[in-house]
UniProtKB/TrEMBL annotation:
This is Methyltransferase domain-containing protein. Pfam families: Methyltransf_32. Gene3D superfamilies: Vaccinia Virus protein VP39. Residues 4-153 form the Methyltransferase domain. It comes from the Eukaryota.
């Protein structure tokens, strides 16, 4: 596991461990979008929880099973009973959850009676999966929710807004959160702020992004037009790099046209590459300043949606933002009076199963 994943797994396991409390060994945790199973395997091995890993990709489930088998074999050398218990505590379901569709139960009935605490969780649930997890939680009677959303750029109208509290004011003001806003929300402000203290690193990064952005512009402009002004060839700092990237993005485009579009970009910025770069740096700074505001809007929307369903929810910064840019979790609990039986997931259609 890379240091980023180690950090995330440790932090999420602490959050889920707190939610399970002293009841961990009699708990059931369902992890939606469980990937290779890092978190559920740890919860089962270290806390004795029963876990259900729900994953849409069969290949990830196969890797998770392989990883679990290795851990079980390792433990079996010294503690065979513990190894057998761990093996029995981890369940896998291959299922792709679709937003706003009902789905059959994903948790075996036999686990229901034994569970004292039930937690629904998701670590880095990309795009609309985070919304599906929250809808599933509201429609179920799981005691608690621990959710770290990511990839807001992939959210669709099915995944945002979820709440009246955020959705209604946006609609009243005629504000549409479109592709630009969603893309902005995933900028990594912590990394940007951190890199400011190492001047060259920040400049290198902005240069690389500038080249990529210029290449994207060149490829798009070349696709949209049949003619372009002749390249002037006067701009020389980043032009070759941008042209090389643009040629990868648009292999069928005429290289002369691509180069000409770079020159028109520079000329629109006042005629010098330095000016074009300075403009891009200012834009990049602005995007980084706006990113946490937009990200928080997605997070608050999720927490407001849960509040509107009568569930106590909070947004908490759980990860180190430099190691793991999507650093927040939505953590929710039903009242202690909630029925202790294990629910089925009532939302999210399963389109494939094994
Ligand atoms: C960013 S990965 C995180 C994996 C894991 N939770 C972790 O942190 O190591 C997101 C996972 O969610 C799965 N996934 C995404 N959309 C899904 C859906 N609609 N239904 C089921 N799984 C989904 C992906 O296949 C992927 O394994």
């Amino acid at each position: 596991m890379k240091p980023k994943k180690q950090h995330e797994v440790r932090a999420v396991c602490n959050v889920v461990g707190d939610l399970l409390g002293a009841q961990a060994a009699a708990s059931v945790v369902v992890d939606l979008g469980s990937g290779k199973g890092y978190v559920p395997q740890w919860l089962a091995a270290a806390l004795g929880a029963t876990v259900v890993c729900v994953e849409g990709e069969a290949a990830y489930t196969a890797s998770a099973k392989k990883r679990l088998a290795k851990i079980v074999a390792q433990i079996a050398k010294r503690e065979p009973d513990r190894a057998a218990a761990l093996d029995a505590a981890v369940h896998h379901v291959v299922a792709r959850l679709e937003p706003d569709q009902p789905c059959p139960p994903l948790v075996p009935d036999t686990l229901a009676s034994a569970a004292s605490t039930t937690v629904l969780m998701g670590l880095h649930t990309c795009g609309d999966l985070a919304a599906t997890v929250m809808r599933s939680y509201v429609a179920s009677s799981f005691h608690a929710l621990a959710l770290a959303p990511c990839c807001y750029n992939l959210r669709t109208e099915a995944g945002f807004p979820l709440s009246i509290g955020v959705g209604a004011p946006l609609a009243d003001a005629g504000v549409v959160i479109g592709g630009n806003e969603r893309n902005t929300s995933v900028h990594c402000v912590h990394k940007w702020a951190d890199a400011q203290f190492r001047e060259n690193e920040l400049v290198d990064r902005i240069e690389a992004l500038f080249v990529r952005a210029a290449a994207g512009y060149m490829a798009t402009a070349a696709a949209a037009s049949t003619s372009a002004p002749l390249p002037s060839g006067s701009a020389a700092i980043w032009r070759d790099d941008a042209l090389a990237t643009a040629r990868r993005l648009a292999p069928d485009a005429d290289p002369t046209h691509l180069a000409a579009h770079y020159d028109s970009l520079v000329s629109a910025a006042g005629g010098s590459e330095e000016l074009a770069f300075a403009r891009y740096s200012a834009l990049y700074t602005l995007l980084n300043v706006l990113a946490p505001v937009l990200e928080m809007m997605f997070l608050v929307d999720g927490a407001a949606y849960l509040h509107e369903a009568g569930i106590h929810a909070q947004v908490r910064e759980v990860f180190d933002g430099i190691l793991s840019p999507r650093a927040h979790m939505i953590i929710a609990r039903r009242s202690p009076q909630a029925p202790p039986h294990l629910p089925s997931l009532a939302a999210g259609r399963v389109t494939s199963e094994s």
